[in-house]
């Protein structure tokens, strides 16, 4: 009985002591935190506090990624579509080009005039490419673009979406700047340049999908994904407008368009 009474006394005494120890530790830690905050307020000037707050990240990184991804897609689509408009100021226009074809009169239509011009060039433009060559030039980008979608996703999973996306945009930007030099070197040089440019841009969407899966929570993935991929329509609209204005009002001519959008891509990468 004596041992039983001692055990009962210890059992009823130890839990309160344990709780008291926990309360004391909590009080001391609270006092320490409060003291450290007050000391910090007294010793650090406001600008240092603001700098530390900014360094900790007042804007969530997934929103920064959403904005940068939007700009990447917008500029990628701008560099893709700029040649389709600039080529109108690059190539000599041929009106009524018959080639080896025979123009037959239509009995139900207007008669064909005898003085129909077969070849009326526009001397202001620089290149004399036929329609077949122009078709190769405009489609060469997409030959390379379709080849790097699956490899782009594998590269993004292995080496990271950030590096894959950045290097793809940088490659496309550098080749966009080099487009005027390739065009003056010859049409096949331009076709090769556009093909490699398509290879670089083909990694854009796979890398962005990998980054969305890694950085964005599932509940916000739809909203930020819509922001990122809205860059294709907005980039096309803005690039078409700016390209038309630069071709009409600036003295640099059509090469300025490629320098401008290629420079924006390099600036985005930096």
Automatic annotation (TrEMBL):
<feature type="transmembrane region" description="Helical">
    <location>
        <begin position="252"/>
        <end position="269"/>
    </location>
</feature>
<keyword id="KW-0812">Transmembrane</keyword>
<feature type="transmembrane region" description="Helical">
    <location>
        <begin position="189"/>
        <end position="212"/>
    </location>
</feature>
<dbReference type="InterPro" id="IPR020846">
    <property type="entry name" value="MFS_dom"/>
</dbReference>
<feature type="transmembrane region" description="Helical">
    <location>
        <begin position="224"/>
        <end position="246"/>
    </location>
</feature>
<feature type="domain" description="Major facilitator superfamily (MFS) profile">
    <location>
        <begin position="64"/>
        <end position="270"/>
    </location>
</feature>
<protein>
    <recommendedName>
        <fullName>Major facilitator superfamily (MFS) profile domain-containing protein</fullName>
    </recommendedName>
</protein>
<dbReference type="GO" id="GO:0006820">
    <property type="term" value="P:monoatomic anion transport"/>
</dbReference>
<dbReference type="GO" id="GO:0016020">
    <property type="term" value="C:membrane"/>
</dbReference>
<dbReference type="InterPro" id="IPR050382">
    <property type="entry name" value="MFS_Na/Anion_cotransporter"/>
</dbReference>
<dbReference type="InterPro" id="IPR036259">
    <property type="entry name" value="MFS_trans_sf"/>
</dbReference>
<dbReference type="GO" id="GO:0022857">
    <property type="term" value="F:transmembrane transporter activity"/>
</dbReference>
<dbReference type="Pfam" id="PF07690">
    <property type="entry name" value="MFS_1"/>
</dbReference>
<dbReference type="InterPro" id="IPR011701">
    <property type="entry name" value="MFS"/>
</dbReference>
<dbReference type="InterPro" id="IPR005829">
    <property type="entry name" value="Sugar_transporter_CS"/>
</dbReference>
<keyword id="KW-0472">Membrane</keyword>
<feature type="transmembrane region" description="Helical">
    <location>
        <begin position="164"/>
        <end position="183"/>
    </location>
</feature>
<keyword id="KW-1133">Transmembrane helix</keyword>
